[in-house]
Design brief:
By secondary structure, the chain is mostly beta strands. Among the domains are: about 5-40, no CATH class; about 45-85, no CATH class. The protein contains no helices and eight strands. It has strands spanning about 5-10, 20-25, 35-40, 45-50, 55-60, 60-65, 70-75, 80-85. A hairpin with a 4-residue loop joins β7 and β8 (about 80-85). It is elongated and about 75 Å long.
Length: about 100
Amino acid sequence: EHGLAAATTTQLSRADIGAQVALMFVAGDPRQPLLIGRIQRLPQEALAQLDGERLEFSAEREIVLRCGKASITLTRAGKVIIRGAYLSSRSTGVNRIKGGSVQIN
């Protein structure tokens, strides 16, 4: 297959090769394609499941739980990032910290 040069109303890059586009033809002539835009894929909505005992959120890239200056972020790569002005960890049982390496201060 050979491509056909087309005029465009939008800026495109090599990253757009293979993307779905909106196309029309100048004066209806199929030899004069006019690319009028790239079809945007809507982001997948985050899913939440609640069964009365457990609440589970699912997302493709990242989940962020935020309240004021505090946040907990879960990433697709497996990172858990906890941020806040004050962090407290308490346990009536064992409070264990385990990792490949642990840095304190």
